[in-house]
């Protein structure tokens, strides 16, 4: 996993390669100031770091079956002595592993 400093270097390269960048101020198109470029680098690095550290959580949340569906799976697993719920959850976790 990359450190925030490494991701900042990566973000700096991406922003430098994207120059010139512009913003709209009072209906006027203006190129970014140095402070704007610095902020864009900081924001991009932080975004990359957040995705690296927490992206798997968001991916799991989207992939898990709904709570009613999970409860239904648990009920039918108990009735039929099956492992549908456990298998579904294990698949989500293996498809979206926690970074180490």
In summary, what is this structure?
The chain has 100 residues and is mainly α. 71% of the residues lie in helices and 8% in strands.
Characterize the structure shown.
This protein has 100 residues and is mostly helical. The protein contains four helices and two strands; from the N terminus they run αββααα. A two-stranded antiparallel ribbon has the order 1-2. A hairpin with a 2-residue loop joins β1 and β2 (28-31). The mean pLDDT is 97.
- Average pLDDT confidence is 97
Could you say which overall geometry the principal axes of the C-alpha atoms support? elongated
Evaluate the radius of gyration. 22 Å
Low-confidence stretches: none
The largest beta-sheet arranges its strands as 1-2
Total helices: the number is 4
The SSE order reads: HEEHHH
| Structural class by helix and strand composition | mainly alpha
Q: Beta-strand level of the residues, as a percent range?
A: 5-15%
The first-to-last residue Cα distance is 8 Å
The helix fraction, in percent, is: over 70%
Largest sheet: 2 strands, antiparallel
Strands, count: 2
Task: Please tag this protein with its features.
single chain, 100 residues, mainly alpha, two-stranded antiparallel ribbon, elongated
